[in-house]
Amino acid sequence: MTTPLKALSSYGPRQFGDRIGLSEWQFERALRLELIPAADQGGRWSATVFNEVAAHVDTVRKAVGTIPDVGAARAEQHLAERFGITVNPGTAAELSRRGHLPERGDYRGNTLYCGLTLDLFADRRKVERASRAGHLHMRDEAARVLELRDADFEHLVRSGLLTHSETTVSSWHKGTVVRLYRQADLERVLRSSRVDWAAVRATPKGRPSPLAALPTRTRTE
């Protein structure tokens, strides 16, 4: 037979969460949503507050949802499973960029996305649009999307017509930073009136690129 836990006169955050049956992330979200009042005894909670929350803990648990704040990969996996569609890398960042998925801090330098929003996300079309626009490509794949030679691609980057959206670290070459290019940015540069795409693509290998005439972007610190 399990011995009931002895009631305390006040509770710290770990004691409060453990005794009420909430994980750390659930407890922190409940505080943020004001489902649990702010500590009323110098950083601790009185037994009165604890008992009041304990009496409706099921309501609190339902309100905080089932998904903690997660990184991009887990957010995208959840959306793929929820809607039964392919969700490309970069979708979470694109949804955030469009105001549909709030950021909730970071973990070891990686952005965390709001688990409660993911839990309630119901708009498949927003996910599909973000998946297309936010799709991230490594350099070689980005050049193939644009149908450009390596030299042509480098001129676009040098001129500032195209910039990378994110970076990652290579799994093949430890410590090597890999630049990632967003699909929407590739499509934007294809619409640029500064580039004669027919002339660029007609230039044979070994001949100077028409893009060499583009001025070099001035970098500002």
List the helices and strands and how they pair.
Blueprint: E1 10-11, H1 13-20, H2 24-32, E2 45-46, H3 47-54, H4 57-64, H5 72-83, H6 91-97, E3 103-107, E4 110-113, H7 115-120, H8 124-134, E5 136-138, H9 139-146, H10 150-159, E6 166-169, E7 177-182, H11 183-190, H12 197-202
Antiparallel strand pairs: 1-2, 3-4, 5-7, 6-7
Helix pairs in contact: 6-8
Rg from C-alpha positions? 25 Å
Work out the strand percent: 5-15%
Low-confidence stretches: none
Kindly state the mean pLDDT as a whole number?
A: 92
End-to-end Cα distance: 67 Å
Please list the strands of the largest sheet in the order they lie side by side: 5-7-6
> How would you sum up the major sheet?
3 strands, antiparallel
Number of domains: 3
Any idea what the shape is? elongated
- Total beta-strand segments: 7
The H/E string reads: EHHEHHHHEEHHEHHEEHH
In DSSP terms (H or I, runs of 4 or more residues), the helix count works out at 12
Estimated helix fraction? 40-55%
Class from helix and strand fractions:
alpha+beta
